[in-house]
Amino acid sequence: MTSVDKAAMGWSIAIVAVAVAIAAAASTGISIDSGSPAASPPAMQETTQETMLTKSKIPGYDRLTSVIDFGMGHEKHQLAIILPPSDKVYSGTLRYDASEPIQLVSLVGPLGSGEDNGQPIWTPDGTTQFALTFIDPKNSNGEWDFVGNALAVHTMNTNPFIVDYRVTFDESPESDTVMAGTVESITDPGVGHEFHSLAIIIPPSEDVFTGTLSYSASEPIQLVSLNGPLGPGETAPMIWTPDGSTNFALTFVQANDQMGVWEFSGNALATHTMNRDGFTVSYAVSSEKTSGMTTTSAAPTGPTTVEVSMPTGTSVPGCEEIDACFIPSSVSISTGSTVVWMNDDTAAHTVTSGSPTTGPDGVFDSSLVMVGVSFEVTFDDAGSYDYFCMVHPWMTGIVNVS
Asked: Is residue 65 a contact partner of residue 53, using CB atoms and an 8 Å limit?
């Protein structure tokens, strides 16, 4: 890992030169290597403005004073660039202590022609475009594991800020474990997912990849990793299968955002939506690979807890057409395990055992689950348990207990 050791830098001129060089290179097909931060512009002199800011310097940290954000549409914001744009991929940990709450920024790019398709974008000139991952931790000090082609911190205020920081990082060329790019989704090939869209970042492999994903998508997405394929007798709470016989354990995270960072592990990595119309995602990945193994194992002997979401919009018919009224609508667990239903919608629901055609069967009933409230059931007996929402009967699901 590399540790940055440099004083505050005059980026307001230098970064425009970098952007112009990248734009010129993109038009001629030349690849620009911005180099490591050690080759960055000379440190700027202390200004009267900085001395007016009240902040004690953190011992052992470097310091930057922000400048006006030169991204188009961001002229009233402030930006402090820590790692400038590179044709390699940065990955590491940023520790920061600022004079006010800040946002965290990583960029992927510059994007190629036609790759801008609705992702959040940052551009210095309207032509050179970077996919933007923008995280607001709502604090002035903390730690962030990041990955991308550039790293910065930011505020939406007009007045400058000071940030003391320490960053340890690798700057790596692309490989099968470190990568950045843009991909269009396809129809999800999983059985029962034919009305969903899937963007595959790391295809299924015999190797296990563990690392960090940074993403910027054209719409809110879900995050997916697969473990497997499962061996004979192996099972998992959630299953994804392309053919009905080759099964993978599915990790499915409802991100509910267009951009973010995810720590993942699995034999495959993808992003997903419940829509059939498709989406675009720009991403950066830094991972380690363990060869010749999978992360699957036999079904757990002890109880587990599985979460099910009642997502936004399920109070209106239509979610049943894409099997998205409960996410996931089908779970498989062992005896003694617990299922927790969380109401992420804007309307109240019930979780009632039985079916809309035959009515409640009396095994469990949540009564009304209000917005933001959860309901849970522990299943001690094996069997298949159908359930539905009595208020919105198109909402159905099943719990399989073995």
From this structure: yes
Identify which of 362, 363, 354 has the alpha carbon closest to the alpha carbon of residue 390.
Answer: 354
Whole-prediction pTM: 0.67
Higher pLDDT, residue 299 or 128: 128
Beta bridge partners of 90: 148, 171
Beta strands in 232-358 (DSSP E): 239-240, 248-266, 268-273, 280-290, 305-310, 330-333, 337-343, 352-355
Q: What is the CA radius of gyration of the chain?
A: 24
CA angle 255–259–263, rounded 5-degree value: 65
The DSSP bridge partners found for residue 153 are: 80, 104
Is residue 25 predicted with pLDDT exceeding 90? no
**What band does 27 get if pLDDT is binned at 50, 70 and 90?**
very low
For residues 202-239, one letter each, b for 16 or more C-beta atoms within 10 angstroms of the residue's C-beta and e for the rest, the string is bebbebbbebbbbbbbbbebbbbbbbbbbeeebbbbbb
Please give the full DSSP string across 159-207, using - where no structure is assigned. S--EEEEEEEEEEE---SSEEEEEEE-EE--STT-TTSEEEEEE---SS
Burial tier of 114 (Cβ tally within 10 Å: 0-12, 13-18, 19+):
exposed
% of residues, the chain, pLDDT over 90: 61
What is the rounded CA–CA span in Å between residue 364 and residue 386?
A: 10
Mean pLDDT of 198-211: 93
